[in-house]
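Kindly draft a sequence, keeping tokens residue-aligned:
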Amino acid sequence: MTPYTFEQLTGIMKKLRAPGGCPWDAEQTHESLTRYLLEETYEVIEAIDEKSSQHLKEELGDLLLQPVFHAAIAEESGEFTMDDIINTLCEKLIRRHPHVFGDFEIKDSNQQIENWEKIKRLEKGNERPSALSGVPDHLPALMKAHKISEKASRVGFDWEHADQVFAKVMEELHEFEEAWAGGNPSRMEDELGDLLFAIANLGRFLSLNPEEALRKTITRFQKRFSYVETELLRQGVQMQNATLEDMDTLWDQAKHAERDNNS
């Protein structure tokens, strides 16, 4: 069978949206599709974590459907077309890579990041008056903390050594303990936020992505918890009837099994 082309994909979408097509597809708007864009993005990340090429191929297709969908909606109202999207993207890539498409020279990827940000600031002009501008409001909180502190660092608002960041984390932890001892929920929330921000900053300072780190920890927790559940059921014990000591023993078994598999 001859493979489908990108033009055929956009044609399929137009047919789905046209009279006599699919009622659900025809009803969608930019706003109603927002949740699917987020869901498909996270499913792509899951496929990457699984290291499954087949799953990744499928999920990337689902993700690709989203800009195709949005382009079809925009074209119907005369806003822009898929060709406009592609043209804008190509112009941006060429403009922001003068070391590839021009005669500008860079030493390494760090200098490229600096130059990219410099070009972005020139492009945006007064649209982004602050060094912290351009971070989407709807990013997950840890990811947003990482991006905000990264932007602050680029203008020199940063620590010089990792020990200073560790000290800041311990300072925030101590302040959270004080708030907890004081029993004030509002202050506890503030101090917990400060502590999480400091930890996100520590991750960024050490070139570790806090969002990715937490996501992987959650996955490990789910796997270990599932192991504990399964083993208890195998023994004929409901989890709520098991002792904490029994559950801790099984949890340690799951941890050791992970280490053996990763060694």
